[in-house]
Write a structure and sequence with these properties.
6-stranded parallel sheet; about 350 residues; Rossmann fold; 7-stranded mixed sheet; alpha/beta; Quinone Oxidoreductase, Chain A, domain 1; homodimer
């Protein structure tokens, strides 16, 4: 890399109250890191805009460590190894993992995973269906919720990155009914028309979501894949079938909330229906390479058979990252939101 | 049975609002039933006072069918077959099952289960540790919560019938820490001294239950056996360990509540800890005789080895049943609350 390389970083200036505002963050320039023993340095190519990043900006994120004040904003990245002091990684390798909103990141080599470039897809695909999003949908629906042929399935966040895949995988797994929930006419249309949902309930629409769920599931629900949390979960719990399974996959209603919304008052439904609810994080399986590989192969196969559609909303530009991030919460994006860094050193050093 | 036999019954006069009041119920006298084809008639010996009966008095009980207005109050009974039109049951057999607050009940023979008298215990024991209570504790802790050696276990309702057994079974299963929650100094003392809890948190005491749980579990909780629901559950969820398991075994805070308490606002904890929560009813296993038998044998063994203590609060008298039932909710009982019916025909026909 050139000597003149600079390392732009977005730092946390103060902890946001609700939505992230411009004065919560600060654009700074740091040294390009050098690798310690067992470490690698990565030039970032893609930043993944995940809602959970908002959690990490809080003093008590709910899980994991908070981002330090004056520290760089943490997030999943895809990039190229530009320096390595670990035998398992060499310059030019493409890797992904937890980095930060920076031109360059460094860390222990074993905290980054090889991008499975052998599948032959464009790089952004590894931030989505062949990355954490696809693994989340695959693991969450097939293992955590244990979807089975004949199941009636409800998926919240149906037009989102994870939800768009969950509906299609449910169909592939033999579910007889796949209903989504999303906010707004446009998102609902995309869920039904593009992602194959039988129908999509608009929680911003004129029919109360509770009534819409009751109407959609006269015989009840076997599987709830819950991407959102809050009142949607309560409405879904009212319509469980015997032995129903609820997978809790992050709960976006919680992100950036200044007060916790009240929880569902009807957990009794779990007792009455001998039902189970299980939370999960995709990191639960990332340490199991064989399992990850099996899931990726299956997902790749479904893409090639044209059974799995996905959308990536690729933005370019480092300086607009905070605005781009907020699109996650305003809904001003369509598909997996990824930023390609306009790295000023990119052309010189690639 | 003598011709003069009468069949006293407690009927639901109107649906209670909150606690059951005398004017909600009505004592009536009906005919002793005669069995239809495949049915049996049972003279009731013991009535089990289960909190879930209060649910069935509501128009929308949460599960099962509501008790009909002017219909007899439903409940688990133990009794003796006095007439049978089913080949599998004969007069004199002792059976248990869902009956009603009556001197006599009738129904399809296959809805009643033989009392496992072969274990040689006094009859009330089959309403407790060798009946639904013991099966609930055994199934809920070992199968639903999947307790394992080394687990740190929190049990609410620790001085109650189910909770008193759960703590002891957790210890037998190799849990390293077993903490109870109960209401009041007396109950807590009983949980610690009689049922072997390491400590028991008094939710009516001066220390907020949330702080007491935090202090008791500096390293977090692996298993929550939840007998109560409401704010106790929320406090417990704040202290889960990775891969924690929560068994929801009925939730007494809900019974007779005129408004649902808000649910836990921190279900996020299930996601952050990849934890699971599962509701269950003992009826989930009652149709599996081999499984029930294996559990009963194990429970019987633990009684004989003096590893399992239990308490039965046996009351006598049919006319006082409503008052006795309310003791469940005021705490004015100690141990499994059972009513032995002072059946006026008992001496003549036994």
């Amino acid at each position: 890399m050139s000597k003149s390389a600079e390392n732009r970083q977005w730092l946390l200036r103060r902890r946001p109250h609700g939505r992230v505002t411009p004065s919560d963050l600060e654009l700074a320039v740091a040294q390009v890191p050098t690798p310690g023993e067992g470490e690698i340095v990565i030039r970032v190519k893609l930043l993944c805009m995940d809602p959970t990043i908002r959690n990490f900006m809080d003093a008590a994120p709910g899980y994991g460590m908070p981002i330090a004040l004056k520290g760089p904003i943490r997030g999943m990245i895809v990039g190229e190894v530009v320096a390595s002091r670990d035998a398992a990684r060499r310059e030019g390798d493409l890797v992904w993992g937890l980095g930060s909103w920076s031109d360059y990141v460094s860390g222990p080599a074993n905290r980054f995973f090889p991008v499975p470039v052998g599948f032959g897809h464009p790089l952004p695909v590894y931030t989505h269906v062949l990355g954490t999003i696809g693994l989340t949908a695959h693991y969450g629906l097939l293992d955590v919720a244990g979807v089975r042929p004949g199941d009636r399935v409800l998926v919240s966040g149906a037009a989102g990155a994870v939800g768009s895949l969950v509906g299609q995988i449910a169909r592939i797994a033999g579910a007889t009914q796949v209903v989504g929930i999303a906010g707004g006419v446009e998102k609902c249309a995309r869920a039904s028309e593009r992602y194959g949902y039988d129908e999509c309930i608009d929680y911003k629409g004129p029919v109360p979501v509770r009534e819409a769920i009751a109407a959609a599931f006269p015989d009840g629900i076997d599987v709830v894949f819950e991407n959102v949390g809050g009142p949607l979960l309560e409405a879904a719990l009212d319509h469980l079938r015997k032995n129903a399974r609820v997978a809790l996959c992050g709960m976006i209603a919680r992100y950036g909330a200044t007060e916790m919304p009240p929880g569902p008052a009807n957990l009794w439904s779990l007792v009455a229906n001998s039902a189970r609810m299980r939370g999960f994080l995709v990191s639960d399986i990332l340490g199991q390479p064989a399992r990850v590989d099996a899931a990726l192969r299956e997902l790749d196969g479904w893409i090639r058979e044209d059974r799995l559609r996905y959308d990536i909303d690729l933005r370019v530009g480092f300086e607009s990252v905070p605005d781009t991030f907020n699109c996650l919460f305003t809904g001003a994006h369509s598909g997996r939101l990824v930023v390609q860094i306009d790295n000023p050193n990119q052309s010189a050093s690639t």
